[in-house]
Amino acid sequence: MQSMTNARIAIVGAGMAGLACATRLGTSGIRVTLFDKSRGPGGRMSTRRIGTRLGEVAFDHGAQYFTARDPGFIEQVHAWAEAGIVAPWPAAGADAWVGVPAMNAPVRLMAEACEVHWSSRIEALERHEDGWALRGAVALQRRFDAVLIAVPAEQAGPLLLPFDSGMAARADAANAAPCWTVMAAFADPIASAADAVRGQGVLGWAARNSAKPGRQGPEAWVLQATPEWSHLHLEDAAEDVVQSLLASLAAELDARLPAPVAAIAHRWRYARYGSAQDLGMPWNAVLGLGACGDWLLGPRVECAWLAGARLAAAMADVRG
Ligand code: FAD
Fold it and tell me: Which end of the chain is more exposed for a tag (fewer CB within 10 A), N or C?
């Protein structure tokens, strides 16, 4: 593939990485089409809504907050802050930010500026003489000059393998730790001076979601098990996980918890990767095939944004 000008580009996965890549390509006048299996924006920064007798309660059920260290990402976060869609949340740390009114706000804003096909799981890629086709998409008959894979490594590997074994091997080398997460709503506040609690053993993290900036509604908590506990209890029943994490929070706070009006558990099979050596973003200019995602850099929102932006830059660097 020689030139990006007028190239037809598809991105599989419209999480932070895929949308950061699309946004950066867009600033160079390159339009892309995104496909995502979910019904709405967020990926691992998504927001879960649960109906309760107290009304609907929203939870940040993946990433809880994020930090910004890279100058480019700091600039982006300040732009989001000016737009009112992120705000500092000192309870998690002096440099912690959250989306407002929910964690998925930045991803939602980026998605609004792009052509995203939701509820579109891509099962496989096909390479034809006239370009790439995406099997599983509603628009299978469409052809693309380049396809970028912006999904978790475990799902990226099988898509990449038939075309670029080196790229697939990089994905296979990344392994995400699981995370059992419990979302619980209460009629009465939980007695805790802190809105964010870090633990060890069973409970790795607990946050009073309803205390984050811009949130409304009843008392809501998100509890995350440690990676070790999540791994050991991966196949446990969701109800048992709810009981274990609530008991662990009570022990951590040394308090009796009121009975929740709603409590559900979600198992993130692929939650967070380890830190990775920055080997550059995988981009095969001959085939028009690339990949991005947090798994290429580290287990943070910032890493996903950087991976997407850097893949777009790598593509621009090699264009003819
Ligand atoms: P994702 O957000 O996973 O986006 C990938 C997208 O691809 C998804 O929207 C998915 O629906 C889609 N997709 C997957 N397969 C297909 C397919 N076959 N076809 C079409 N679409 C597909 N980061 C922090 O900075 N701070 C934290 O405190 C923090 N806590 C976390 C806690 C948990 C429980 C989890 C799960 C993550 C946490 N993270 C945290 C990590 C952060 O959420 C991720 O680094 C970041 O959101 C990854 O973005 P991404 O775009 O690389 O991947």
Answer: C
